[in-house]
Specification:
The chain is α+β, with helices and mostly antiparallel strands. Helix content is 32%, strand content 29%.
Length: 104
């Protein structure tokens, strides 16, 4: 079973069975689909390159994480780019709301 993926020209995950080609692609490709910083907090959403469902369905290809602040290490994973983009916005709103709460 292949669990390594790259993105095609349209941004869709496609299997990549060649380990060296996959590794070179990971090193040279911009995998962030969104990256924001609010105050000292970073919100990052990336294409993982590996199906993180580990055999279950649907496959998991994208991940959002928060670094810093009260939600440090928050993590969500997604099957589609559309879900990942929405999840990034959700995490960004979570950070913004927590910073507003700290100002009160």
């Amino acid at each position: 079973m292949n669990n390594k993926y790259i993105l095609d020209e349209q941004g869709n995950p496609v299997p990549e069975p060649d380990l060296l080609k996959w590794g070179r692609w990971l090193e040279t490709t911009k995998r962030h689909i969104a990256k924001d910083q609010v105050g000292g907090v970073q919100i990052s959403t990336v294409f993982l390159g590996i199906d993180h469902s580990f055999g279950s369905r649907p496959p998991i290809f994208w991940e959002t994480m928060i670094f810093g602040g009260p939600h440090d290490q928050y993590q969500e994973r997604y099957s589609t780019r559309k879900e990942a983009e929405a999840g990034h916005q959700k995490a960004l709103n979570l950070v913004r709301d927590s910073l507003k709460d700290q100002e009160k």
